[in-house]
Design goal:
The chain is an alpha/beta fold. The chain has 2 domains: about 90 residues, no CATH class; about 350 residues, Alkaline Phosphatase, subunit A (3-Layer(aba) Sandwich). Helices cover about 35% and strands about 15% of the residues. A hairpin with a 6-residue loop joins strand 13 and strand 14. Helix 3 runs antiparallel to helix 4 and helix 10 runs antiparallel to helix 11. It is globular.
């Protein structure tokens, strides 16, 4: 006991010595001639900080201002939200809308014919099919039927999705600017084709904060052992927003979050004391530099400390009854599979995690499209439907937004050799299908229409920026007002575009 007292006394003396060394001259020099409070206001994009400076409050008030900022960052939501949380089921690679949802029966009469130039209209091609001399039409080999009261068209590949069509809002007129995977995925996830912008989840975290202090606001899950286009952590990154808003990846296996578990043979008894002293050091550092990332770093340390208890609890599946596993499918008992991640997503949403992002790779069928799409639907169809049913039976679907879709669609013409039962499909950014369900969107509704070739949108186009604007609207956010000042410019998720698609709102 006496030994601990001596340690605490010694540490306090060290802090006092550090404070003495931070003279007024040193402070002014390191805070750029005394404008630390102004710099803080610029970095944080908050009018409260600026008004404090205008009223003559000095940098010593920055911490109090920051605390106020964190409680109600921008006075959000701007209006009553329909959605409290979201799960985004991202299908990486570009699912073929022609083989799943966008039924085009007239194409069977045009098998093998060259796609008319009047349809293609000189649109950009990828390097994979740019050298083709012809573009033979490849009708889907899948059987389609109409389901539910909404009479939605669904192919034979998705019998479970067919059961829930009256819960879904199909958008068949999605459009994007990107034709290759990495820029297209980056565009869907961040609103820009170039890396470096904040992801959707980071914007929601920044604008609305957390509803659970013991878990991250934004969590990412990736299907294990799936080949396909690479996924980079910047897709769930915070970009230029404070780092506490970045997504946290949960993995399958012993350690769901890297570096969260205590080292072997360490009992963690003094962890709280260590964080307290570290907090004092960082507070001194913040007083000198006024850098908000110092506070963000401490927020992450504290979150990691709380997650040592909350993560094992939320990732424990032992309390799930057999009928739930049966509903999601046999793979749901295998951590890291798509089905298991859908079930994990539901558990995280129950804990009021605001944004849960699932990534599932393998939808890039340049060759062998029928077999490839069939395999992917077998891995995902049952779990997608189960997640909708599960949320609904728990009364959560009414304030949970569910989004399904990839980065673009696939071409009606065959890439490579075309046979009666096989074909490949290249990337197609000008027309593809997504669906949404739950909070604030119409049930059993289809929006938008493509031409007879599923190549051009002929009614109600929905651009990626429109999709983002609508998503933000469902969370009570005016997408034009949620901005962040970076390098002299105010940025937003929707850049300088985007309109709310009001016709899909309930």
């Amino acid at each position: 006991m006496c030994h601990n007292h001596d340690i605490i006394k010694s540490n306090n003396e060290d802090f006092q010595e550090i404070e003495k060394q931070l003279s007024r001259r040193n402070f002014l020099t390191k805070s750029s001639m005394g404008i630390g409070a102004l710099a803080l206001g610029t970095l944080l994009h908050t009018d409260k900080v600026w008004s404090s400076v205008e009223k003559g409050l000095d940098a010593s008030n920055a911490e109090a201002v920051l605390a106020s900022y964190n409680k109600n960052r921008l006075g959000l939501p701007h209006y009553l939200p329909k959605a409290k949380r979201i799960v985004y089921l991202f299908q990486s690679g570009g699912p073929s809308q022609l083989d799943m949802f966008d039924y085009k029966p007239k194409l069977r009469q045009m098998f093998g014919k060259d796609l008319p130039e009047s349809v293609r209209q000189g649109q950009r091609l990828t390097g994979m099919s740019a050298e083709q001399n012809t573009f033979p039409i490849a009708p889907s080999v899948m059987d389609f039927k109409q389901y539910g009261e909404s009479r939605a068209w669904v192919s034979e590949l998705m019998p479970y999705t067919a059961e829930i069509v009256d819960e879904l809002c199909f958008i068949k007129s999605m459009q994007t600017d990107a034709i290759n995977h990495d820029p297209a995925i980056t565009f869907l996830q961040t609103g820009n084709q170039l890396p470096g912008r904040p992801s959707i989840g980071s914007w929601l975290s920044y604008g609305l904060g957390s509803d659970n202090e013991n878990l991250p606001t934004f969590i990412t899950l990736i299907t294990k052992n799936m080949g396909g286009q690479p996924l980079y952590s910047r897709l769930w990154g915070n970009g230029f927003l404070p780092t506490e808003h970045q997504g946290v990846q949960f993995r399958s296996g012993k350690d769901p979050v890297l570096y969260l578990s205590d080292p072997e043979n360490y009992d963690g008894i003094d962890r709280r004391q260590m964080l307290d002293y570290l907090g004092k050091l960082n507070t001194l550092q913040h007083d000198v530099y006024g850098d908000p990332e110092i506070n963000a770093r401490m927020a992450q340390y504290e979150m990691a400390f709380r997650m040592q208890t909350s993560v094992p609890e939320v990732t424990d599946m032992s309390d799930e009854p057999d009928y739930i596993f049966d509903m999601y499918g046999k793979d749901s008992r295998d951590p890291g599979t798509y089905a298991a991640n859908c079930l994990m997503a539901r558990k995280l949403l129950e804990k009021d995690v605001k944004f849960v992002q699932l990534y599932h790779q393998g939808w890039d069928q340049h060759i062998g499209c029928p077999g490839g799409v069939r395999s992917q639907c077998k891995l995902t169809d049952q779990a997608n439907a189960a997640l909708i049913k599960d949320l609904k039976q728990r009364g959560m679907l009414e304030d949970t937004l569910v989004v399904w879709g990839g980065e673009f669609g696939r071409t009606v013409y065959s890439q490579g050799q075309l046979t009666l039962d096989n074909y490949g499909r290249d990337h197609h950014p000008k027309a593809f299908t997504m669906w949404m369900a739950g909070a604030g969107v119409k049930q059993g509704f289809t929006f938008g229409e493509t031409d007879d070739f599923s190549y051009n949108v002929v009614k109600d186009p929905v651009h990626v920026h429109d999709f983002h604007a609508t998503l933000m609207h469902l969370f009570g956010i005016d997408h034009e007002l949620l901005t962040f000042k970076h390098q002299g410019r105010r940025f937003r998720l929707t850049d300088v575009h985007g309109n709310v698609v009001k016709d899909i709102l309930s």
